[in-house]
Task: structure prediction
Amino acid sequence: QVQLVESGGGSVQAGGSLRLSCAASEYTYSSSCMGWFRQAAGKEREGVAAIDSDGATSYADFVKGRFTISKDNAKNTLYLLMNSLKPEDTAMYYCAAGGPFGLVLDLAEFDYWGQGTQVTVSR
Result:
């Protein structure tokens, strides 16, 4: 059964931190690559970070140095630690699972999606 459930979103002031979690079914977690995407109101969904089965990671330029993607294999859980948050980081954040080319952060490489968790950063 395919299942991705995000949590950890909320409201925070600029400069603050949040950690998102994504609990995955074992089948979904075994995917080659898992990632985080976001979609702000009125904008297209964009890739934020991804991690493959070997632990290699990739990040969008706009989060490099601020966000860290990681996973806990024992818990089938994906994380996104977000530091130094900015108002422009406000968006719905989605967890996704996909194939071996997911590190390129292309939506087309991801087959399964969670329902999303809202992150709001105020000035």
In short: Helices lie at 26-29.
